[in-house]
Design goal:
Layout: H1 2-47, H2 54-71, H3 74-83, H4 87-92, H5 94-99, H6 102-118, H7 122-149, H8 178-194, H9 197-216, H10 222-250, E1 253-261, E2 264-272
Antiparallel strand pairs: 1-2
Helix pairs in contact: 1-7, 2-10, 6-7, 7-8, 7-10, 8-9, 8-10, 9-10
Length: about 270
């Protein structure tokens, strides 16, 4: 009896080990596929300007124009916002600060993506992947522009029109706002995936609080936060739309169509790939 029990127990343990190995292999394949897909998607993102049409260039010019226009009121806006500093706002705006920091940039995508792997949820895994792709693209764009433009931060007291091109010092990396980029990227991807008006209002309100906090804390000019937000929204929309197009190409639908042939009524089943 004991021998039979031990044999049965060994078989169970062996099966568990085999399933665990298969699951690990399965998860490994998913990660490899996602990494490959993310690489190709980012390649599409950074080569997209080579395929810009008239509408794309108009949007690009619009963002540049608004950013430049906001620069003319940067000093006045910053003075007005900072003038109203108080203990309540000091505490409340920290929520926005944290939402745009590295903790959120790394933590939120990894938690969502990891949950998708652990619980075998394709929706969560895809959302996590889109967050990673979007944040990587938007983050790199913002980082390169910060160095290239080299705009002095408000607390440097150099004025709103001081640009130190090709500068790596943090005090001279004001434009665009990295926190705003992160916050609006996350909010855009989650808004697109959740597809609920109330969720979108909440997510974009949180991202706007992040942008406000950057001006409130005297770390950024208003125009910095606008350009950061524009980069985040653009990246979030780009990768979300790319995923939707990919799903549409893989989607199969069918249509039942009535037919009339020699007085006989029939039906045809038409598949759309």
């Amino acid at each position: 009896m004991n021998r039979i029990f031990l044999i049965a127990l060994n078989i169970i343990i062996l099966n568990v080990n085999i399933f665990a190995q298969n699951d690990s292999l399965h998860i490994g394949n998913k990660i490899i596929n996602d990494v490959e897909l993310s690489f190709n998607n980012n390649l599409d993102y950074f080569t997209k300007p080579l395929k810009f049409n008239g509408s794309d260039w108009l949007k690009f010019a619009g963002v540049i124009a608004v950013t430049g226009g906001l620069m003319t009121v940067d000093k006045e806006v910053n003075q007005e916002v900072i003038k109203n500093n108080n203990n309540f706002q000091d505490g409340f705006t920290k929520i926005g600060k944290y939402y745009g920091e590295g903790y959120a940039m790394a933590g939120i995508p990894l938690i969502v993506y990891g949950s998708g792997l652990i619980f075998n949820s394709k929706s969560f895994r895809t959302t996590g992947r889109l967050l990673i792709e979007s944040l990587a693209a938007a983050g790199l764009t913002t980082s390169l522009l910060k160095i290239l433009i080299g705009r002095s931060r408000p607390y440097a007291n150099d004025g709103e029109y001081k640009f130190n091109f090709f500068e790596t010092k943090n005090i001279k990396n004001s434009l665009p706002s990295g926190h705003s980029t992160v916050a609006f990227t996350i909010s855009t991807v989650l808004s697109e995936r959740i597809d609920n008006i109330y969720a979108s209002i909440g997510l974009y309100s949180l991202a706007t609080l992040t942008a406000y906090q950057r001006v409130y804390s005297n770390n950024h000019w208003l125009s910095d936060t606008f350009l950061g937000a524009a980069i985040g929204i653009t990246a979030g929309k780009f990768f979300s739309d790319l995923e939707e197009e990919r799903n549409s190409r893989n989607r199969i639908s069918f249509q039942i169509m009535p037919t009339l042939n020699s007085g006989n009524i029939g039906f045809n089943l038409v598949l759309h790939f």
